[in-house]
Design brief:
CATH class of the largest domain: Alpha Beta
Number of strands: 12
Largest sheet: 6 strands, parallel
Number of helices: 13
Structural class: alpha/beta
Radius of gyration: 21 Å
CATH topology of the largest domain: Rossmann fold
Number of domains: 2
Shape: globular
Helix content: 40-55%
Strand content: 15-25%
Strand order of the largest sheet: 2-1-3-4-5-6
CATH superfamily of the largest domain: Glycogen Phosphorylase B
Length: about 350
């Protein structure tokens, strides 16, 4: 039995990366491999992490790398230790910004060290084929693997038959924004959209539901100042568990007009699809591999036309059969491609390949 040490971010806090790591760590692969972990969520504990990495007896290090300049310095030190100890190493990138960071947003000496240390790893994982370029020239092509994100089984609807009936006959369509309140995630544009519907007297036909965390008090003030005079906007706070499940069940269309630099492949989009929703998003990062025009509406990330989004939503309201067919298709795709089981199978194949070759 091969020993695999997770050098990774674990919950809390819960976000796409940490949840994916926890899902893998708790999976059935625990019976096939011997898993151990070094939680690198808190940099204040870096000394302890170094000691654990130096003393680990694992055969393989599974390492989720950072996309910030400071985090990268930490990662380079970890990679050096892994290389010195002659451990097999698989790095996993849960985003799409790393290559821009290396090529444009760090000193040349730091960039060169990234190229040097990544040349020694035994595998690099990205979220989609369109993101393979991130590691090209750093890791050999045959060592760059693809593993799409997944949806927790608990957040995939067991059935959407009742929801489809509601979608077809309800007098109101509910639009969901479920993400952090960061301007580049597009929440401000969704507020503008809600405002446009209210100005056109359609606030009774479209409800806009927001859920997520504020990191900046200015963004909180901006949101609630806008919300104060918008009748069709509801804020649900930070949701998880039953409250999140209920929100996913009640909404018909998901919207994420993101241009977030660190974006990879938002799990929130997959969760929405897994609950029978149409998707409105952008052609940013790894999104085009999970959502295109057959899944809803995809906007140009640098040229978002809110009138086009408005018109699409009106069309959804007027043509419920078409909307329902998109929702059903998204649900079926999620059950086929983006379940926990499929994610674990993909990761197992990568672990097998690296362990066999090493």
């Amino acid at each position: 039995m091969k020993n695999i040490c997770f050098l990774a971010q674990f919950p809390p806090p819960i976000h796409g990366l940490s949840k994916a790591v926890q899902t893998l760590y708790d999976s059935r692969l625990n019976a096939k491999y011997s898993f151990s972990k070094i939680d690198i969520t808190r940099n204040s504990r870096i000394f302890g992490s170094i000691c654990k990495l130096v003393s680990t007896k694992a055969d393989v290090i599974y390492f989720t790398i950072s996309q910030t300049r400071f985090g990268n310095l930490r990662d380079l030190f970890f990679l050096l230790l892994i290389h010195i100890r002659k451990k097999a190493c698989i790095i996993h990138l849960h985003g799409g910004y790393y290559r821009t960071l290396v090529d444009k947003d760090m000193p040349k000496w730091q960039s060169k060290l990234n190229f040097k240390f990544l040349s020694h790893v035994d595998g690099g994982i990205v979220l989609g084929n369109s993101l393979k370029y991130i590691f090209r020239g750093m890791i050999p092509d045959d060592k760059i693997f693809v593993c799409p994100n997944c949806v927790d089984d608990s957040y995939i609807a067991k059935s959407i038959s009742d929801k489809i009936t509601s979608t077809e006959f309800s007098t109101k369509l509910n639009i969901l924004y479920l993400s952090n309140f960061i301007p580049s995630k597009g929440y401000r544009k969704v507020l503008e959209l809600a405002e446009l519907f209210e100005k056109n007297g359609k606030e009774d036909k479209f409800g806009f539901h927001f859920a997520g965390k504020f990191f900046d008090e200015k963004e909180r003030e901006y949101f609630f100042n806008k919300k104060a005079y918008l009748k069709n906007v509801v804020y649900h706070g930070v949701v998880s568990g039953d409250s999140k499940t209920k929100l996913l069940e009640e909404c018909n269309i998901f919207i994420l007009l993101t241009n977030y630099p660190n974006e990879g492949q938002p799990i929130s989009i997959l969760e929405a699809m897994g609950n029978g929703m149409a998707i409105i998003t952008t052609d940013h990062a790894g999104i085009p591999e999970i959502a295109d025009s057959t899944n809803g509406l995809v906007c140009k990330k640098n040229d978002i036309d809110l009138q086009k989004v408005y018109d699409y939503l009106v069309e959804c309201y007027d043509n419920r059969k078409k909307l329902s067919s998109v929702c059903v298709r998204n649900y079926e795709i999620t059950k086929q491609k983006y379940t926990e089981g499929r994610y674990i199978d993909n990761m197992d194949k990568i672990f097998e390949t690296v362990c066999r070759e090493k």
